[in-house]
Design goal:
alpha/beta; 14 strands; single chain; 8-stranded mixed β-sheet; 3-stranded antiparallel β-sheet
């Protein structure tokens, strides 16, 4: 890059910084008027400058920022490999499709094989199983941690079971020790869906580093964002090459975009019944996809990674504040609890309305939403009850009792870094207002009942 071009870029970057500062100066939180989102992108001028810098390259597909992000993201987890893709859903698709690769030999999964998981979660943890012809085996979850109940995990393993794929619910690590034990004992693949748990730790180690691979999402609601984006990490070099193949059309060649003949044997190999020396760039060893991210997405991700420690710390602080303030309502709610040996990087603050609370989930959710406080269900609730899964083969071990309870009675509010002290105070004040309103309604109801009773006695 010449000095003239660099000077022009710096001038552009300065204008971008000024634009960011102007926008920030206009931001204002007005209680009762400004919506308190459950999540959202948090960024500063670094992300905007990086995005513009990448756009000025006009490389568009994977390039220098992608290479940097993959290296930096792997370094964050102290793993060997990071494979960037276009979404967390695609990351799950890549991870589970990779398990079908003939390159895995006898361990390769086939249609009809089973994967142990849970039905309380997000659809795209399950969808790749179905899309690859696997059969989900559902276990119930625990209330409080909202993670897989591992008490029947080993019982769930059959002769067809080949993998365990589970998400860390709302950032709260599941019982990794037990899942890893069963996976090792039974020779199963173990994949962590870490999309909601970036930065969480279990027994001192980062979640995402315990299994054969782990998946991540960089959607704006998540711990860091690229707008759209995802990744798979692994320490298995063979699996990394397979993941890249499925991501990049299924091709056998592993050259990076814009590079040719990295192996030095581009026209000197034999594959299947193709002609000898057929161009390796057009040899396909898997039924793959194009799930690559753009370099502009990666540029935003590189800047976000620098903020990640601060984001994680803020999520923990916000969760702790909500836990402290809302604990006085414990007679009405089952409060969220961290899994033993874990330090969650929380995705949300989950509450389950107790059966004898005197109000329903819909009542409090409707109240909060009407007062500008965003709430969310635990995604699809019980996925076996969703229309999309009607007629899809699956197996359950035990009843999905708690899964149904979560579907009916649970909701969560956000703890993302964009929620500051003023917003937390407003949200907690709305809980106070709800319970005050509830108590008044109970007193009015009791008074009305008393009046009716007295009139009945007098009439008699």
């Amino acid at each position: 890059m010449g000095a003239d071009e660099q000077k022009l870029r710096e001038e552009i970057f300065q204008k971008v910084r000024e634009l960011h500062a102007l926008r920030k100066s206009r931001e204002e939180f007005i209680p009762g008027e400004t919506y308190v989102n459950y999540a959202g992108r948090v960024y500063d001028e670094q992300e905007m400058v990086a995005l513009v810098d990448s756009s000025l390259d006009f490389w568009l597909t994977a390039g220098r920022y992608t290479e940097k992000f993959q290296k930096d993201f792997a370094r964050f987890f102290r793993v060997k490999h990071s494979v960037l893709c276009n979404s967390g859903s695609s990351a799950n698709l890549l991870a589970m499709s990779a398990l079908t690769s003939p390159k895995l030999g006898e361990r390769a999964m086939k249609r009809g094989d089973e994967i142990i998981t849970v039905a309380a979660g997000f659809p795209t943890t399950i969808n790749p199983m179905i899309q690859n012809g696997f059969v989900p085996v559902y276990l119930d979850v625990e209330l409080g941690t909202y993670n897989i109940d591992t008490s029947r995990l080993e019982e769930a393993v059959s002769s067809k079971t080949k993998a365990i794929v589970v998400a860390h619910t709302l950032g709260n690590p599941f019982n990794i020790a037990e899942v890893a034990r069963v996976a090792k004992k039974c020779g199963l693949f173990f994949i962590e869906d870490n999309c909601d748990a970036l930065g969480s730790t279990y027994d001192g180690g980062l979640t995402g580093t315990f299994g054969d691979a782990a998946t991540f999402s960089f959607y704006p609601a998540h711990h860091m964002t690229m707008g759209e984006g995802g990744a798979v990490i692994t320490n298995d070099t063979r699996l990394k090459v397979i993941l890249e193949s499925f991501r990049d059309w299924g091709r056998d060649c592993w050259c990076d975009s814009g590079r040719d003949d990295t192996c030095g044997k581009r026209f000197a190999q034999q594959f299947g019944t193709l002609p000898a020396g057929y161009d390796h760039k057009y040899v396909y060893s898997h039924i793959g996809y194009n799930l690559k991210a753009t370099d502009m997405q990666a540029a935003v991700g590189c800047a976000q990674l620098e903020h990640l420690p601060r984001f994680i710390a803020r999520r923990k602080e916000n969760f702790a504040t909500y836990r402290s303030v809302l604990s006085k309502y414990e007679e009405y709610f089952i409060m969220p609890e961290a899994t033993p040996k874990s330090d969650p990087s929380w995705f949300g603050f989950m509450l389950t309305v107790r059966k004898d609370a005197g109000f329903t989930k819909n009542q409090i959710v409707t109240f909060l939403e009407s007062h500008k406080v965003a709430t969310r269900n635990l995604f699809g609730g019980n996925l076996t009850r969703q229309p999309a899964y009607a007629g899809i083969p699956y197996r359950t071990v035990g009843e999905l009792t708690n899964t149904d309870t979560i579907m009916n009675d649970s909701f969560w509010i956000g703890v993302y870094p964009g929620i500051d002290t003023a917003r937390i105070e407003y949200v907690t004040s709305q809980f106070e207002k709800f319970f005050t309103t509830q108590q008044q309604a109970v007193r009015i109801h009791a008074l009305a009942s008393d009046i009716i009773t007295k009139r009945s006695i007098h009439t008699a």
